[in-house]
Amino acid sequence: MATAKKPAAKKDSPLPPDSRPSKSRLWLTFPAPLITRPVIWELGQKFKVVFNLRQVSVGKDIGIVCLELDGSRAEIKAAIAWLEGLGIKVEPVEISVLES
Question: How far apart are CA 9 and CA 15, in angstroms?
Answer without folding.
Answer: 17
